[in-house]
Every structure is written in structure tokens, then in C-alpha cells.
Specification:
9 helices, Outer membrane efflux proteins (OEP), four-stranded antiparallel beta sheet, 421 residues, elongated, alpha+beta
Length: 421
């Protein structure tokens, strides 16, 4: 009875586990797994945390300095090295504190906050790159399998035609050259099939680089690739949110903050010092208070030069961002044109070229079955149909790759990986 129960339990577990294991791998699921698996995102989170911790530290006053010393210690005469005989000898303990102005401390904190925002923008860029590269790996495998499917279908048809050709040859209705030609066509298709089988294995290895286990699972149907998540009407404004553009914008903000900090540093910080001085038992103890103020005697060649340097760096960052944006806009417009062109050509293949090649193959088959054409004519028509279909798959694959590069310029927020603190 116990063994029967165990069998039922194992059967129930099999019903639950096996369908999940056989579940097709969609593109979005592959991207989600790649994001969960990435250690680069964790590294970016650490960079953000490091900058934010430094922002808090930079906003504080410097640590006070403890000062210990002996003043006016005799080194000659009868009182040499005595700490109590001479009235001028004092043991001193004091504290010195630099009073950094609040504006400067706030700007230092802001500078590291901008660094944290830059790291967040870099993380967004990493997410977009992972989504794009995972999509390219998934599409590479999808279309390699599609190519292999076309070749396998054509090989099955040729095998059936070989059987018919051999039967015709044995019945005296065909020639040996027809049989040899059919076998040659099959060998050629099998060679191409072997090539694409290797491509599929390579594609699975590339996909495993991103998602780890599960790269061998069957693929789900391809996603809708008729549109991209780009506003072509306001492309420049849309690309301003591209992660690389945001990183450059944050770099510009960092440079501007450093320029404001350099300007604030034109006014020096004061240092306050207080000390208690102990003398011998026959003399009074003393207290000293002092203030140290730096004297910026050559501002034109020091502070002002530093400000000018920081302003030039900010201008450099702004110019680089604007130039990069122009380059991105031009590149994306070119990619969009190529994508539209491939889609238009693919529609022509699906509407005209593939149906015509299929009709030609059917006509050649009917002619061969009716004794009006040779098997060579049929094989030629089959080869033409196979080539046209593979050209269409290749064209669709090129369009899909272009779609992936365009669609994941900016991360797709609908795809969620594991959250990082």
C-alpha cells in the first residue's frame, strides 16, 4: 500500500514538473533570466551605494585634531629638561577644528550625489545592453532553427523524389543520371543541414552565456516585431533619454558642481584652536585660543585658474553630450531606414517570390509525374524554392536583428529582473 502511494506521488510530481520543464522559452523570459543572472547589475548597485555613502560623509565637518605638546622646555642650565622649575615651561593639550563653510560641504555632497545618479544611468545602460544582447542571441537561435527546418523539409521532399526516380529507373522510364542527380541534391542539402545544426549548437551556447541553464529548452514563437519603442516624430528628444546620453548629462552636472565648488573655495575656511597649558605648581595654568585664516594672496593665478579649468571641463562635457546625441540620431535614422527596407523586401518575398517559387516547383512536379519533364527540372525547381525561402528567412533574421538593436536602445521596463538594493 505504501509503495502504491509512492507511485501516485511520483506520478503527480511528474505531471507538475514535466510540463514546466518543457515550457517554451520566450524572448521576454530569456531577457528576464539574463537580468536576474547578471552580476554587472549588482556591481552598479554597489557603485551607487558607494557614492551615496560618500555624499553623506562629504557633507560633514572635518574631524577635529587633538594637539599635544610641551612649550619652552629648558635644554641647558640647572633647570634643563625640567617640566616644573621654569615658569615658562608648559604642558599643552588642545583641539583644532577646521570650520568648513556649509555651502562648500553641501556642494561636496551634491558632487557625490551626481556620481550616484551617473552610476544609476550606467546601470540603465547595462540593462539595455543585456536585453539587446540576449534578444540577439535568442533570435540567432530562432532563425538558425528556422533555416534548418527549411532544409529538412526540402531534404524530405528530395528523398521521396529519389524513391520515385529509382522506381522509374528500374521500370525503364528514367535514367541513371536522374537518380545520381537526385542523390547529389540530397547530399548537398544534408551538408547544409549539418552546417545549420552546428549553428544551432553555437547559438545555444551564446544564449547560455546570458541565461545559464535552460538554453536548450524549445523556443516559443517569435515576438511581434512590426514596431519599435521609438518616437520617430521626436527622435532627438526621445534619444536624449538614452542611457549613454543620460550618463553624459550627469557627467556634465558633475563638472558644473565642481565649478561651483571651486568658486566657493575662493573664500577660505577658518580654523579654530583652543589649548590648555599646565605649568609648574608655583605658577598659574593658562588657556590659549586662536584662529587660523588662509591668505589667498594670488587668486588670479590659483583660485581663478582653478575655476576656469572646472568651467572648461563642464563646457567640454556639454559639447561631448551634444555631439554624441547628433551621432546617435543619425545612426538611429539609418538603422530605421534599413529596418523598413528589409521589412518591405520581406513582404515582397512573402507576397510574390515565395508563392511563385512554390508554384514553379508544383508545376515541375506535375510535369515530372506526367512524363513531360525530367527529374533534373524538378530538382532545379525545388532548389530554387529552397533558396528563395532561405533568402526570406535570412532577410527576416536581418530585420529582426535590426529590430532588437532599435527596440532595446532604451530598457524595456516591462521586463523585470531580480531587484538589487
Amino acid at each position: 500500500m505504501q509503495g502504491f502511494r509512492n507511485c501516485l506521488l511520483y506520478a503527480a510530481l511528474a505531471l507538475v514538473v514535466l510540463p514546466a520543464a518543457a515550457q517554451p522559452l520566450s524572448l521576454q523570459e530569456a531577457q528576464r533570466r539574463a537580468l536576474e543572472r547578471s552580476r554587472q547589475l549588482a556591481a552598479q548597485d554597489s557603485a551607487v551605494l558607494a557614492s551615496r555613502e560618500m555624499a553623506v560623509a562629504a557633507g560633514q565637518l572635518p574631524d577635529p585634531t587633538l594637539k599635544l605638546g610641551i612649550d619652552n622646555l629648558p635644554v641647558t642650565g640647572p633647570d634643563r629638561f625640567s617640566l616644573t622649575n621654569d615658569f615658562m615651561t608648559m604642558r599643552r593639550i588642545g583641539v583644532m577644528q577646521e570650520l568648513t563653510r556649509g555651502e562648500k560641504r553641501e556642494l561636496r555632497g551634491q558632487r557625490f550625489e551626481r556620481e550616484a545618479e551617473k552610476s544609476l544611468a550606467e546601470k540603465t545602460g547595462v540593462i539595455a545592453a543585456i536585453q539587446r544582447d540576449t534578444a540577439l542571441a535568442w533570435l540567432e537561435r530562432f532563425y538558425a532553427e528556422a533555416m534548418a527546418g527549411v532544409i529538412a523539409e526540402q531534404a524530405d521532399q528530395v528523398r521521396r523524389e529519389i524513391v520515385a526516380a529509382e522506381g522509374a529507373y528500374r521500370g525503364g522510364r528514367g535514367s541513371q543520371s536522374d537518380v545520381i542527380g537526385a542523390h547529389g541534391t540530397l547530399a548537398s542539402l544534408e551538408e547544409r543541414g549539418s552546417e545549420y545544426a552546428s549553428r544551432i549548437r553555437v547559438a545555444k551556447a551564446n544564449l547560455a552565456r546570458w541565461i545559464g541553464e535552460g538554453a536548450e529548452a524549445p523556443l516559443a514563437s517569435k515576438p511581434a516585431m512590426d514596431t519599435v519603442r521609438l518616437d520617430t516624430e521626436t527622435l532627438e528628444a526621445h534619444l536624449a533619454t538614452h542611457p549613454e546620453m543620460v550618463v553624459l548629462a550627469k557627467q556634465e552636472e558633475i563638472a558644473a558642481t565642481e565649478a561651483r565648488l571651486a568658486r566657493a573655495s575662493r573664500t577660505p575656511d577658518w580654523t579654530l584652536e583652543a589649548a590648555y597649558q599646565q605649568r609648574g605648581p608655583d605658577f598659574s595654568n593658562m588657556v590659549s585660543i586662536g584662529v587660523s585664516i588662509p591668505l589667498p594672496w594670488d587668486r588670479a593665478n590659483r583660485q581663478d585658474r582653478e575655476i576656469a579649468s572646472k568651467l572648461a571641463t563642464a563646457e567640454q562635457a556639454r559639447a561631448q553630450r551634444e555631439e554624441m546625441l547628433r551621432a546617435h540620431v543619425g545612426e538611429v535614422r539609418t538603422m530605421l531606414e534599413e529596418w523598413h527596407n528589409r521589412r518591405e523586401r520581406l513582404q515582397r518575398y512573402e507576397r510574390d517570390l515565395i508563392p511563385l517559387a512554390r508554384e514553379r516547383a508544383r508545376a515541375a512536379l506535375a510535369g515530372y509525374q506526367g512524363g513531360r519533364t525530367t527529374i533534373s527540372d524538378l530538382l532545379l525547381a525545388r532548389r530554387n524554392e529552397s533558396d528563395v525561402r532561405m533568402q526570406a528567412v535570412q532577410l527576416e533574421m536581418d530585420a529582426a536583428r535590426m529590430w532588437a538593436r532599435l527596440n532595446f536602445l532604451i530598457p524595456d521596463t516591462a521586463i523585470h529582473g531580480k531587484e538589487h538594493p
